[in-house]
Design a protein that fits this description.
The structure holds 3 protein chains of 3 kinds. Chain A is mainly α. Chain A has 12 helices and 2 strands; from the N terminus they run H-H-E-E-H-H-H-H-H-H-H-H-H-H. Chain A folds into 2 domains: 87 residues, no CATH class; 194 residues, MetI-like (MetI-like fold, Orthogonal Bundle), CATH 1.10.3720. Chain A has a two-stranded antiparallel sheet with strand order 1-2. In chain C, helix 6 packs across helix 13. The chains are: A mainly alpha, B alpha+beta, C mainly alpha. At the A-C interface, helix 2, helix 3, helix 4, helix 5 and helix 7 of A face helix 1, helix 3, helix 4, helix 5 and helix 6 of C.
Chain lengths: 321, 336, 275
Amino acid sequence: MPSSPPSGMSSRHSLSAQRRRAAMWFLAPMLIALFCVAAWPLLRTIYFSFTNTTLTSLYDGKWIGFDNYLSYRKLSSGRVIWRGTLADPAWWNAVWNTVRFSVVSVALETVLGLIVALVLHQNFKGHGWVRAAVLIPWAIPTIVSARMWGWMLNDQFGIINDILLNIGLIETKIAWTANIETAMLAVLAVDVWKTTPFMALLCLAGLQMIPKDIYEAAKVDGVHPIRVFFKVTLPLLRPALMVAVIFRMLDALRIFDLIYVLTPNSKATKTMSVIARENLIDFDKFAYGSAQSTLLFALIAIFVSAYIWLGKVDLSGEHSK
Amino acid sequence: MAEIELKNLRKSFGGLEVIKGVDLEVRKGEFMVFVGPSGCGKSTLLRLISGLEEISDGDLMFDGVRVNDTIPSKRGIAMVFQSYALYPHMNVMENMAFGLKLAGSTKEEREARVVDAAKMLQIDHLLERKPKELSGGQRQRVAIGRAIVRDPRVFLFDEPLSNLDAALRVQTRLEIAKLHHDMNDVTMIYVTHDQVEAMTLADRICVLRDGLVEQVGTPAELYDAPNSVFVAGFIGAPKMNFLTGEHAKPYDCATYGIRAEHIDICAQDEATWTGSVVHAENLGADHYLFVDIGVSEPLVVRQPGKQFTALGTEIGLKPQSEHAHRFDGADRAIRN
Amino acid sequence: MSKFLNATLFYALVFVIVGVSVFPFYYAVITSFKTGTALFEVDYFITKLDFSNYINVLSSPNFMRSVWNSVLIAASTVGFAMFLAVTASYALARVRFKGRGLLLICILAVSMFPQIAVLAGLFELIRALGIYNTPWAMILSYTIFTLPFTVWVLTTFMRDLPVEIEEAAIIDGATPWVIITQVFLPLMWPALVTTGLLAFIGAWNEFLFALTFTASESQRTVPVAIALLSGASEFEIPWGVLMAASVIVTVPLIALVLIFQRKIVAGLTAGGVKG
C-alpha cells in the first residue's frame, strides 16, 4: 500500500490552491489602492497631529508629542495654563453639536423612515408613484438641497416663514439659519428631509423579508394590529434596523457639507468635521486640525466597535450563509 | 474509459470528517451508482473524484495514475449537475462548446462535435436557444450533451433526475441507460438517494452510510445477499420486514429479515405467525397486505393479483426460509 | 364609519409624505423661472415661464466646465473602482481563504471612514503627486469611498450566483479569470449597472474633497460651484440662477433614480441590511 504524502505538500497543484493564488492576485490591486487612499493618509494624519506642521511647509514639522491635544504650562505666578484641542471650548462645542445632531437626526429618521416604510408596505392605488416621490429627496445632491432649503428658509423672502405666518404659528419672520437658537433646527429639518427616504427604503426591504403568513396567523388569532407591530414586526425588523441605524449614525457623525453650506460659521451647528477642516485649511493650523480629525476618527472607531460588540450585529454577512 | 481506484480516501471539513476512509474500485466501462440516505457522503465522494473538493487523505487513481492534485478539467471527467448548471447567457451550442473552446479547439471542430452530440440526444433543433427557453427535460439533455462533447473518460452524475417530474424521470432514466450502452460503455459514476434509480441503472451499486462503504455489489447481490440490516432495509421496495427479540430467537439471530414476496399465506395451523390484516395496498399487478402479528410494525406480504383479503381477517403466514436473511447483534449478515 | 376614517387618515398621511418629499424641488423649479423683483414675492404656482436664468447658467463657461469636471471625475473614479472591484469581489465571495471575514470587515470599515480623518494625509499625498487643483486629485481621493462600496455590494451580489454554474465552468476548464469574465460578468450586468450608478451618484455629490483639493473656479465640481455661487455680498445671492443650476444638475439624477428605482433599492439593501 503506498502511503499518501501529507496534504500540505501536495496542495500546490490542486484546485483550491489555484483558486487561492488567483484570489491573492485579484485582491492585491484593490488592497494596494485602499492602502494608498485610506491607510496611508490616515497614518499621515495621525502623524501630523503630533507635529507642528503648517499648511505652507508640510515637511518642516517637528515632533511635539501631545501638545496639539493637551499641554500645560506653569506660569511664574503659579497659574497653570492648559492648551490644546482638549482644552479648547470651541472643540467641545463642536463635539456637543455633533453628538446632539447625530442622535436627534438618526432617531427622527428612524421613526419617520419606519412610518414611511409601513405606508409603502401597504397596497394602495398609486403606490408606485408615492415610492418614486419619496425617493426624490434622496436623489438630490446634499449641496443642492442645502441651497434649496436655504432659499426656503430665507428670513425675508422664504416660503417657510410665509407659510408659518399665514397659519399663525409665528408672529414675526425668523432668520432660521442665522439665529443661534434655530440654526440647529434648520439643519436637522433638512437632514431629516434628505435622509428619511434612505431609512424608509432599508426598513421597507426589511419589512418585505418578513413572511406574510405570520401576519395572517396573527389576524386569525385576532391580535390587535398595534400589538402585532410591537410584538411581531419590530422584533423581526430589528436586525435590519440595527444595521441601518449604524450606517446612518456613521454618516451623521462625520457630517460636513450640509452644515458648511446651510449655516456657514454658525457656532450653534459647527460640527467636528467642520471645525477640523477650518483649522486644517482655513486657519493654517494644519497639525491642530489633524489632531481634531484624529479624535473624530477615534470617536467613530470606538462607537462602531461598541455598537457591533453590544448589538451583536453581523455586518459581514458571512454567517447568514 | 477508465479504471478508478479509491484508496482509503478521506475528507474532512474543518474538524468534521465526512468521508472516513473509502476503498473502492470502479472498473473500466462500469456504471457505478453511489446510493445512500442524505448526509451519507455520496455527493462529497463524487466531488472528490471530480476534483471540485480537495482530498484530505488517501489516494485517487485514474488508470493507475494518482490524480489527487490534478485540477478537474485535466482529469478527463464530465459532470452533470442536479440543477443542470447551464450558462444562462449562452445558447445551447455555446453551452455545449464552452469546454472545447477553453481547450483551444477550432470552431469547425467544436461545431461538428456539438452537432453530433445534439443529434444523438435529439436536441439538434434547439442549438440556437437560450436555457430559459427550454423545458426541464430539454435542459437536462443539454447538460448531458455538454458532458458528452467533452469526450470524457468518466461521466459523473450528481442526482441528475431529482429536479424532473416523475414521468420524465423514468424516461430520462431509460435514456441514460441507453447512453451508457451507446457510448461504448464509458465509465459512469452516478449519485442518487433513490434506490429504484440505483437498481435500474447500475452495473454495480455502492451503498454508503456515514462516510463509509456499507456494501458494494451488483443490484442482484445487494438484493439477495445484503451484508447488513442497513443495506437490506435500504435496497428493495417495499422495505424488508425485520423481526427482532423473541421473534428472531427461533432462527438463532438478533434480527430476522424477510422480504414481502417471500412470505406465503397458509392455513393457521401450519403458520409461523398469525395476525389480522390491518391495511392493504393495490398496485394493479399485485397487492400488499399489512398484517399485525403483534410486533411494532405490521409485516408486509406481497400477493399476486387484486384479490384482497378483507381487513380484519385473521390469516396465517409462513416465510420461505431459503430466502430469509439473518443478522447478528452487530447488524451484520450471518452466512451459512 | 371607523373604516372610512382610517382610510381618510391613511391617505392624508400619504399626501403629507408626498407633499413634503416633492415640495422643495417644486419650489426650486418655481423660483428658477423668476427674475428681478418677482423673486421676492412668494408664489405657490408657476406664474410666468421665464427661461433667462437657465440661459444664464447654460451660457456660463465656468458652470459648464464644472459639469464636465464632475462627469469626468465621477465616471473615471467609478470605472477605476469597478475594474478593481469585480475581481476582488470574486475572491471575497467565492474563494475560501483564511481571514476573509476580517478582510471584509476592514473594507467595510474603510467605507465608514470619516473623510476628514484622511484629509490631511491626502492633502499631503496630492501635493506630493503634483495633482492639486486637477481632476486627478478627486479621482484619486474618491476611490476611498467608491472602491469599498463597489467591492462590498458586488461581493453580496456575487455570493448569490449559483455555485453549480461555477463548478460546471471549472470542469469545463475555466480558470478564475475566465469564470469572472466569461461566465459571471455576463450574468451580473444588472448588478454592475446598479452599483456603478450608486457609486457615480456618490462621487457626483461629494463635497469635502472637491472643496479642499481645488483652488481655481475652472477646476470646481458641480457641488462646489453651486455651494460657492454667490453675488457681490451675502444679500445679493442670485437665487434665480442658483435654483436654475440646481434644477439642471438634479433633474438627470432624479430621472436616473426613478428609472432604476427597483434596482437601486436592491443595491442599497445589499450594501446595507444584508446581514
